[in-house]
Write a structure and sequence with these properties.
The complex is a heterodimer of chains A (about 150) and B (about 70). With about 150 residues, chain A is an alpha+beta fold. Helix content of chain A is about 30%, strand content about 35%. Chain A contains 3 helices and 7 strands, in the order βαββαββαββ. The longest helix of chain A is centred in the C-terminal third of the chain and has 18 residues, at about 100-115. The radius of gyration of chain A is 16 Å and the shape is globular. With about 70 residues, chain B is an alpha+beta fold. Chain B has a single domain, classed as Beta-grasp domain (Ubiquitin-like (UB roll)). Chain B contains 2 helices and 5 strands. Chain B has helices at about 20-30, 35-40; strands spanning about 1-5, 15, 45, 50, 65. The chains are: A alpha+beta (about 150), B alpha+beta (about 70). The interface of A and B includes residues 79, 123, 132, 136 and 142 of A.
């Protein structure tokens, strides 16, 4: 099974983190650090909605998996497509490693790069509308070549 | 012909056009006023690989994707 899982709608967090725990139970990892992202009630939103571009997301994820491997670590990730309501979860990233230090450092770098680079677009669900979260979005590194911004 | 696809919040149907490099694509898109707000902040992929220069060569059947600013999680 792929280490990258995409779901329509909210994630079933207990199922996913328990299954990942079981899947890796025999590999002698001493550390398992999941990061779970949950939609907060803020600015009157009913929820968030996501578009995901899977081909580039998969390539980005596999590049990270290759970086983790020499450290003896393994990454897993789950993300939602479509609508996720307030107090539901849309994102889980997890690192497994023999010792804690690698997992603690890798989860931070992985989640930060995810925010800056993963081809996922976020929308606020508000008054029945789906509004692009432009102000909270980050241009991917190297963006702007078509506009002559290089 | 190459295909140009617009991802995420860019509300625009795919285009097909003749282009031998990304420079040709940029020239066409710059004439489209609704694209003005996107060209300066979009990343560009050719056949699902991000590219960094307008000199990137294109051949028939290539797919060019525009990726606007992202916010996963």
């Amino acid at each position: 099974m792929s280490m990258l899982e995409l779901y329509d709608g909210a994630l079933n967090v207990p199922e996913i983190i328990t299954r990942w725990y079981s899947e890796e139970a025999e590999y002698n990892y001493g550390a398992y650090i999941p990061f779970i992202g949950t939609v907060r009630e803020e600015d009157g939103i009913e929820g968030l909605s996501f578009d995901v571009y899977e081909p580039i997301l998969s390539a980005w994820f596999e590049a990270w998996q290759a970086k983790a491997e020499p450290l003896g670590a393994k990454l897993k990730m789950a993300h939602s497509r479509g609508d996720v309501l307030v107090h539901e979860s849309s994102y889980i990233a997890a690192v497994f490693s023999p010792k804690r230090r690698v997992s603690l450092e890798t989860i931070e770098k992985f989640v930060e790069d995810f925010k800056a680079s993963a081809p996922i677009w976020k929308y606020d669900l508000k008054n029945g509308e789906r509004i692009y979260a432009r102000e909270r979005s980050t241009a991917i590194s190297g963006a702007g070549i078509l506009g002559g911004n290089v | 012909m190459v295909t140009i696809e617009f991802l995420g919040p860019i509300q625009k149907a795919p285009l097909t056009l003749e282009a031998s490099s990304l420079r040709d694509v940029a020239e066409v898109l710059k004439q489209d006023t609704e694209m003005a707000q996107w060209l300066e902040n979009c990343a560009v992929a050719v056949n699902d690989t991000l590219v960094a220069t307008l000199d990137t060569a294109l051949k028939a059947g290539d797919k060019v994707s525009l990726l606007p600013p992202v916010c996963g999680g």
